[in-house]
Structures
1.
Amino acid sequence: MRRRWLFWGCMIVVLGFVSLAGIKWLVSWHTSQNWHTPLAGRIIVIDAGHGGPDGGAVGGSTEEKDITLKIAQDVRHYLQEMGAVVVMTRDKDMDLADDNYEGRHKRQDLVRRADLINKTHPDAFVSVHLNAIPMPSLHGAQTFYHPKFSENRKLALFIQDSLKRNLGNTNRYAKPISHVYLLKKSEAPSALVEVGFLSNAQERALLIQRNYQKQAAASISQGVMRYFTNEKVPSD
Ligand SMILES: [Zn+2]
């Protein structure tokens, strides 16, 4: 009888160690999974600015819509690698308005993009654009946000900080802006990135390079990732 108690006593201790080791292994496996997929379970909407009949800004023979699409597709790739589910407002050269919707075509396009964003109920929304202005000396990536939620500023600060660090060619800061329709309408934490100026010849030469587009996309994705991983919010 005593021997039997001893046997079961030993078994319980052994099983205890085995299950403890199992739990430890499970925890470390789960942590390593999170390390590789820090955005698992996150839904992100990415908007490639303009498209179709709306070419956006122009510099030389380059149209904004073509570069925003490539960068947005690269951002999708990087975010998916980190485990996010990514929804694009467009994935080819098109906009969301009806073909023959004269007059208020642009308005219909934007309204439909805003509907898509809010119906998706994303954890974050990022819109990708390029700039062109009559002052050819201006250059540098810049992130904008609507001041209605403090989360918008936080997301923009992370993205701008990552662009600054990785591209090494912008001293611009995350800036509040109130009149951008999609930022105003989005119910999710949102930011709009002006990746660079097509009106600056030097920056335009970079913006048409696939490597630079990927670098910019990786920076935007890194900013989004840092926003979700409880890192200390960078300063302006
Ligand atoms: Zn634009």
Note: Residues 39-228 form a domain with the Aminopeptidase fold (CATH 3.40.630.40).
2.
Amino acid sequence: MTTPVIAIIGAGPCGLTLARLLECKGIDYAVYERDESENTNRAGGSLDIHPETGQRALQECGLFDAFKKYARYDDTVLSLLDKSGKQHLQIGQGRDAPEIDRKELRQILLDAIPKDKTRWGHTLTGATLGEDGRPVLQFANGVVVSGFKLVVGTDGAWSKVRPLLTQATPQYSGKTYLEARINLDSPLYETLSKSRGAGTTISVGSGTPIITQRQGNGSYRTYFGLPVPADFFKSGGKVGLQDAEATRGLLLSDFYADGWSDDHKALIRHATDFRTWPLYSLSAEDMNWTPVPGATLAGDAAHLAMPNGEGVNLAMTDALNLADKIAEHGVENIDLAVREYEQEMFPRGEETISEGKAMTGIMYGEDPQPFVEIFSAFGAGGDGEEGEH
Ligand SMILES: Cc1cc2nc3c(=O)[nH]c(=O)nc-3n(C[C@H](O)[C@H](O)[C@H](O)COP(=O)(O)OP(=O)(O)OC[C@H]3O[C@@H](n4cnc5c(N)ncnc54)[C@H](O)[C@@H]3O)c2cc1C
């Protein structure tokens, strides 16, 4: 295998968008991904794709029609409840931020680049600078590669490219989401699909939010928010997630379920397929590093933030911005292209990190009112009326 001009580490939304854009521009690249194949069942829920960012990137990729085949405009509705089940807000029906499952987005992008451009089963374990001052990549399968004009770390939260550029590491927020599923064959499914219907429902509790989100196949993902140590659900932690009954028991105890309505408790009782998402974030101050010839970061690797609905959109915007700069300056001036990209990316990163922190504070708050104010201000087309849900 020859050394490509550009190495992209990670076949997530950012890396694959960049790959597709480079493919369209005729610039040589390869994607190195830890998953063994494209069939690896990568977890993660539905994503809303915004017009000026994610949708624009898909348009530039020439993939907007492919996206529209999967885009769910009926799932844009957002409802806000309190612990008792009282609805405080419902907005966003038909807004231009359609949902797509992560798996489908990945497939659209993968189908748009030649198969031999993705090197599956390549887990990057480390990146160092060689004698020429440019990156050398070491993979878990023993492969060591160098000689690229540029290495782009799009390898997400725990990027192994990041240490080449900055000492910044993600810090734990003190908050975790426990993800679970209510599948189509769940005894609760019919009731839930009638009561929750389309879109996303956020229920604000006392520091313990519950989010329910309809997926592409009609099933639901539920996120139970908990203010617990990062290792709470890990081995050696308080509860092992492989024991679903014990996990449900913990959530049904006063520790969590106190004050929640019967409908919310039913979600816990029927939850399956638990998975933990401890929320980590970089800091806004980290969004500034001295350029390193031949290396950069994009997407979560550059500006990991707590969830704020922008993560995937900004990841795809980074890819678009970087690809445009490379095309503008040419591969021979790639370090200049990267410097300009980074100067434009840093403010985006700072903003999303700050927003993620603020949004998580509100989600894990006691009171639905700050939420009502933020989302009403968006004027997202809802009636904003309170009512029973
Ligand atoms: C609970 C939760 C809910 C979220 N909800 C939303 C939402 O509703 N909307 C939204 O916009 N965003 C959401 N996000 C954020 C969003 O998922 C990310 O911002 C987005 O996926 C970033 O894309 P990325 O390509 O930069 O990184 P990732 O999606 O993390 O992709 C990284 C890729 O790199 C690969 N990789 C990782 N390490 C290595 C390695 N060492 N070697 C090789 N390959 C590697 C991974 O396998 C993966 O394919 C959510 C995040 C969380 C935690």
Note: The CA atoms of residues 46 and 102 lie 6 Å apart.
3.
Amino acid sequence: MIVLGTKKDLLDRTPQVISTAVAANLCAAVVMRQELVINFLFFLFGQCPQSFPLRFRRLAAKIYHLGGVHSGAAIAGTVWFGIYNVSIARLRDQDVGQDFRIVLVVFTIVLDALLLGICISSHPALRAKYHNWFECIHRFAGWLAIALFWVHIILLTLASRRGMSPMPSVGQLLVKSPPFWLVVVITVSLALPWLRLRKVRVEAEPLSSHAIRLHFDYANTPLCAAPRFSDNPLKEWHAFAGIPETNGKKGFSVLVSRAGDWTSKMIENPPTRLWTKGMLTRGVLHVAPIFKRLVLVCTGSGIGPMLALTAGNNLNCRILWSTPSPEKTFGKNVMDTLHRVDPGAVIINTTLVGRQDLLEPAYTQFKQMDAEAIFIISNPKVTRKLVYGLEARGVPTFAPIFDS
Ligand SMILES: Cc1cc2nc3c(=O)[nH]c(=O)nc-3n(C[C@H](O)[C@H](O)[C@H](O)COP(=O)(O)OP(=O)(O)OC[C@H]3O[C@@H](n4cnc5c(N)ncnc54)[C@H](O)[C@@H]3O)c2cc1C
């Protein structure tokens, strides 16, 4: 963009040319959220041998920042779409025909609104505050935008046939058009998880008025992968860390703690069936075993992802868990698993001692363990504070803010 801009011909490009840049960026954004791609990347980086230099493994564990590629590419695509606006505005009736031109202009304006709506509603502050809106806008505006891109591509292809002799078929032109293939990839990426939409059986294990454990037997979980569940597929989806069942049983369970309307509904009216789609998607903790010794810091239901990591694995780790009345809230099974995977786990019962500063205990455990890294699953406030404090002390810290 900078090169074209300095040559001053950025704004002289045809819609056909600019649409390639738009589609390439949006394709990168969508593909980065595709479960197959995410699973492949986490699998690949999770293969990093422990014998590799620590500096290298620290970099490999940063793979969970791939969400940044998604948002970066989406914003770049939106900026390119701004330039596409110029190319559409400069079209003349004789270029594409009056009817096509009007449709292209109107759909471009609608696309402006859709892309801006998606970008604005994805701002972390808005996303956290209006999560259901964020999800709906992302889903429906995204789908509508792709449908309108298809219209643009077809119309521009039809228009580009004008004056060609002999006139090629639309198909012949489309197969040679990069935007066409890019939008095919986008469409397939978006459709794939929905092709695996199904209802699955749930066995609910009520734990307390704050938490419930849901057991599933429709699939086994890869290490630290998250299934998504919904009771209203078009409205909202929720991801949880899949904890493998032990004792040779098939399936996995998820811990769900009261964090909003949907989780409250699950706790108060335990489901017998839920919708799921796509496949279980690996997350940040999948790469944790590339470190020889770990400290795992969590609050409340953050113990779920930590058990997903440790339950079926023989890891050299120390768990630091700050939570109210652990056994009363999360039940005996969770406590038994926790003590089995880390007999020396440090549990801060906030009902008894209040919310303690977790920075010092986390750093102390890191030093005592001579650990190579700290992973954190907590609420955004604690996560940010710990990441800041620990990284300032040179501790490799890995801590996602969002659970999906
Ligand atoms: C990658 C990822 C995966 C996740 N997976 C799941 C999942 O599988 N299931 C699920 O239910 N949630 C999951 N979450 C959400 C996550 O568990 C919660 O955001 C986090 O644990 C906060 O816990 P909470 O919601 O119970 O509430 P919080 O308000 O954070 O409080 C929970 C308890 O933590 C302690 N606590 C909170 N703040 C402090 C503090 N400042 N100092 C000391 N102690 C404190 C207190 O005991 C408090 O009662 C996930 C989040 C991420 C980022």
Note: The first helix runs from residue 2 to 6.
4.
Amino acid sequence: MRILDSHAHLDDALFDIDRDELFESMAQSGIETAIIPGVSPEHWTKQLDVAKQYACPYGLGIHPWFCEDNPERALVQLTDKLNSAIEDPYLVAIGECGLDKIRKDNWDGQIIALEAQLTMAQQLNLPVILHVVKAHNDMLSILKRYSLPRGGVIHGFYGSSEIASEYIKLGFKLGIGGLILKTNARKLKTCVAKLPLDSFLIETDSPAMTPQNAADPRNTPLILQSIITEIANLQKKSSVLISEHAFRNSVQLFDLKLILI
Ligand SMILES: [Zn+2]
């Protein structure tokens, strides 16, 4: 059974003390790699260093939490960074970018940065990694105006079956993560039970989204197995089948054939 984490911030400073050991434990648990998303110009240098050191695929982007009211300067930096990385086979996506209504103070900047990054994804023929919190209707109406050749993923998806099928119709996958392990995530569980096998990826969003009662305050890719088990239970299918499809969907979306042996 092949497993990869489609979204993990393994460049986060919380992993500085034991990153080698974490990658070692991931290898022992059969987790082949993790896609490291980009969040802001200040973070890209370290992110790319970590990605290179551990041979992880990565995205480059501006996260809505790190988006200024006027994101022009950061967008110019992103264009430069993308130009210098475009030949790198480990650059697999634009993102993460998106909309977050919990951090509404920079909403206009979030919209400008998102639309610019969708245009970059079109021009560079890359998929997008989208962060969408309490903003599915806004996101869906923006996505309907862009035709993205490679689609993308709604990472850390939380929403209803209706919202899920809208994204799927637009050519997007859904990133299913630790939220599925919460006992009160009823709406998400109902949705995931019915998702088509070619429509989802698995992820942890480490070090965020730590499961309840975990010994380590940090989340790590090592919880992927419990996410697979939960999806398998909800779908009434085997864990092997679920993990195979999730792996294949990630490989297809991010075109990882050449970098995974
Ligand atoms: Zn993230």
Note: The chain has one domain: 3-254.
